[in-house]
Structure formats: C-alpha cells, structure tokens
Write a structure and sequence with these properties.
1 helix, rod-shaped
Length: about 70
C-alpha cells in the first residue's frame, strides 16, 4: 500500500469516527430535549399546585380575619 492509499485509509477512518461521534451527539441531544420537555411539564404542574396552595392559604387568612373581626 503506498503512502497516498494509507493517507486515504486514515482519512476514511477519521471520517467514520466523526460520523459515529455526530450520531452519539444526536442521540444525546434527543435525550436532553426529551428531559427538557419533561422538566418543563413538571415545572408547570408544580407552579399550578403552588398557585392552588397560595389561593387556599389566602382564603384561610381571609376567613381568619373575618372571624377575628366578628369576635
């Protein structure tokens, strides 16, 4: 095998490694996007629960103030 053929083999090998690395990054990116979506949904649910809890606490405070004024 002459020098040029060897260079082409090395280049081919490096290109194959690059393709594998790109595929790995694509898989990782898909995984990260799925996780991001899951976390965004979880955050929205937690914010909704937080708003509901805040409303309940505010209602309780209002009732307590009303009871205090009636006394």
């Amino acid at each position: 095998m002459n020098k040029i053929e060897q260079l082409f083999k090395n280049l081919e090998s490096r290109v194959d490694e690059f393709i594998e690395l790109c595929d790995e990054y694509k898989r990782h990116n898909r995984s990260l996007k799925a996780r991001e979506s899951q976390l965004a949904e979880e955050r929205a649910n937690l914010m909704k629960k937080n708003d509901m809890a805040r409303a309940k606490v505010e209602a309780m405070i209002s009732r307590l103030k009303a009871l205090e004024q009636d006394s």
